[in-house]
Amino acid sequence: MENKFREIVKSKLDENLYKHSLAVSAIMEELATYLNEDKEKFALAGLLHDIDLDTTKDKPHLHSIVGAEFVKSLDVDESIVEAIRKHNPMHKLKRIMPIEKALYAADPLSGLITACALVKGKDLDNVDVEFVLKRFKEKRFAAGVNREQILECKDLGFTLEEFIAIGLSGMKRIKKDLGL
């Protein structure tokens, strides 16, 4: 089933956004394991979360609302639709379910980890938790990454270090797909 969704995402996003979606999906699947949640649901939420970004890039106030409506038409679980709807911080929607909190925090974490890999020879194997944590504290590094959003991992019961380790593990698992 995921292959069908991968093809849909690939057809709607450019290559970089597609890889970002794969990275978030891998982090979400890893988080599901630690949270004892449904790995397929979590991974699918990560894969589909930015499906509207090419069409809403000039209208950020519509991002995630348009995406959630599109994803709803794909007949996926409502918890996935809601996680997608609530992942855009601009909407200030309350996140209650673990899948919602996980997606909100995992989305920017993937960007931070990717930026770390890019400065380490485009190789995730050269990146460890300490390096990501050090770069997390440098506000000018990957300045577009919302660090407050990443810190929401605490609502899931993780320290920042634990959350980074989980995210890094998920992304390393699919490093060939990411080109890292």
Task: Give an account of the 3D structure.
The structure is a single chain. The protein has eleven helices and no strands. The chain has 180 residues and is mainly alpha-helical. The chain has a single domain (2-175), classed as Hypothetical protein af1432 (Orthogonal Bundle), CATH 1.10.3210. The mean pLDDT is 96. It has helices spanning 2-12, 15-35, 39-48, 53-56, 65-73, 78-86, 98-119, 129-137, 147-150, 160-173, 175-178.
Quick structural summary:
This protein is an all-alpha fold and 180 residues long. The protein contains eleven helices and no strands. The model has no long low-confidence stretch (mean pLDDT 96).
User: What structural category do the secondary elements indicate?
Assistant: mainly alpha
Rg of Cα set: 15 Å
Number of helices: 11
Question: Which spans have pLDDT < 50 for at least 5 consecutive residues?
Answer: none
Shape: globular
Number of domains: 1
Overall mean confidence score, pLDDT: 96
The CATH architecture name reads Orthogonal Bundle
Taking the alpha carbons of the first and last residues, their distance comes to 25 Å
Biggest pleated-sheet summary: none
CATH superfamily: Hypothetical protein af1432
* CATH topology name: Hypothetical protein af1432
How much of the sequence lies in strands comes to under 5%
